[in-house]
What does this fold into?
Amino acid sequence: MDPDTEVNNIVTRSGGGEDEKWERPPSSYGSMKSDTDEDEEKAEEEGEEAHAVLPESPPEAQTRIQMIRSASPETLYTVTTQQTKPAEAMVIDTSSLDLGDAPEVDDDDEEEEFYITNSPEPPEPIEMEDLTQSEDSQPGRRHPEQDLPHLFKSIQSVLTELSDEELKNFRMTFYHGERKMTLPVVMEGDLLDFVDRIIEVLGQERSLIHTMETLKKMDKKEHAQKLKDQCQRALIGFYMKRHIIRKFQVIHEGIVEAGKQTFLNGIYVEPQISTRGYGGLDPSHELRPHPPTPVQVPTPDTFMALNDLFRQKRDDGSPVRMVVTTGIPGVGMSFSVAKFTLDWAEECANRDIQLIIKISFKSLWHLRSKDNPTEKKSFFDVIEYYYPDLVDKLKILEEPDFKILIVMDSFDCYQTSLDWENAPELSDCSKPEHPDVLIVNIIRGTLLRGARVWVLGRPAAVSQIPSKFVDVVTEIQGFSNEMRDEYLSKRFSSAELAADIVRHYKRVPMLHILSRHPFICWIVAKLFSRAYRYLGYGTNPPRLTPFLINTLIVVINRRKQFYYDAAEYDLKWSKEDRQLVTNMGKMAFKMLERNTSVFFEEDIKEVGLQLTEVAVFSGLCTELSNESSGPRRRFSFMHFTFQEFMAALFVFIMFHIESKNVLDSGSFGLRKVLKSKIMGKSAAGLVECALARTLSSQVCQYDMFLRYLCGLLSPACHSDLFKGYLYPHNYPKVEGLADVQRVLEQAIQNAPGDKVENLKECLREMIQTDT
It folds into this structure.
């Protein structure tokens, strides 16, 4: 029974009196009408405006009575499609069968605004955010074929092809397969009501998929295929959004604790992102106003929001196609990718992007070297391998108006160089090629020409991409002061614990500076939350050395997992790992002696290491901008104080494992009496040599170095933290710490005034027992 026949029967049964008004508000989905309404639409083409002035000669009366569904929940769609009475408008009800009762319009009242209730169908529904947004703003407009009206009409049009008996069977089958629906909701009302209700209750994705499944159960495979073809864009978007939400909604940090889940949206704090890439170093230091080698830092006017990366424009005004994002190790690139894609999947931003496909370079590297390094695969093969549910939907990716974003993170994991100039050009996504060639053509833009590409990786890795392929380079800078506190506060359900941690970590200026890096901030949260379980913790300021030791251990362990596929239970440091740490410490010590914070490729080779191993895989260094040094590549540790720590660690390793005092060069004027009594291989002699360098330096060159060296002598650091990594568990502890304490106390009494405070910190780093 069509809607008008049903309405006429109701009017006939009720007597059809003129005083009785039968109203049915517009459907939740506006102008999405059954096919039986097509004839009526032709007569109403002039009346689609919700606000209209009655014509001088009213047209022939038309029945527009609709059933009221008071039990239907009010949703976003009903809010945006219901007609609203404008200010001071005269209300004219046209729901009666005769419009002759409408008041006449006097000539004097020509400018008076009339409002007609229950007038012809309202305009297409629009989403609330789009009312005030331009095309380039967030969250963006969806493609029409992925929006609600298209999906609604597609379901309705396919079901209209069923006979009355088939439609009845469809409703029953639909009901039995979906327990969220009640029998009255499914069986009552016309077809438009049915589609309206299932979308309100089940949502767009479940309504579409369950409709296709039900049609297949009824052996209506042609109808199911027709619906699938009409909603191909929506289906591919639904699948990818569901996949992304499942993968990134809950994050895993460090060792996963049973029964505990960390939601990304609950802890994420967006770092500062700059459109100027200088290397991402923070020049701040507790004791030195400027680093030994000046570094450039971006100004706040270059900062931008994460979700605006692809809202930028080229010089000619066209949208950017290729964006490269980089940053120092631990700055949060992986989290930024997760947040960007999750916001898209949850339709919070970038809704104009129809599909986001994330393929990490680590996955491509495994695919390349898994069985046969020379094996060829097409781009569609790669997508099918990682997203098997997209197997029969990939051809739509080549549609010219299909707006797709390919996210390729961890460029540093692709452990081979690419031939950017000689790689063959490839435009066919189904043609097999070597993975190297696929990558080059994706970045070139010859493969999936309409796709936008986002590549992320460490500076020393992404620097090999030719600049002619890159539209914008962005660099994640880390947290501001306010962001650090916000991050630490959001991590804990206890406001009191969060306040204690925020207050506590600020007591050591260098720790506050280092916490600009999100990774260090995470270390702070982990260590402090554990430490505050002990009664009385928080009386003493925190020590800095344990934080840097924990950071080093986690970085080296992640390196083994990320680049060398080590299992979580197999993170024992190998001889090569210990040699890497020792040699990088040696390089840091030589840099400290030269009073520089920048090193070059020849410095890496001098200590027997490879450029990629240090600049990319180690996770301790970054590449700086070479604007001032021409073609010569410059590198630095992730922060200058980390260089000071690595230098101190090298000196400690040589003393404790190799039994060598590399500070005993005889060039710092040690008194002969002290030499004869304590020099040798004692810890006191080592500290005495470090003190001589510290007190003789005019630029605070060795001050933090001495503090870290004293901290490493503490058994809580070198024994409890480094056992099992730098040396076996049964390795002996450093002896003679009482003599070291006396040397430091004597130095505090005799040192110049500007050195006293740091020497007290050196002593505290060594003798304090808590973190």
User: Anything to note?
Assistant: The mean pLDDT is 81. The two ends are 78 Å apart (CA to CA). The chain has five domains: 3-130, 142-230, 247-478, 481-542, 549-767. Residues 481-542 form one domain.
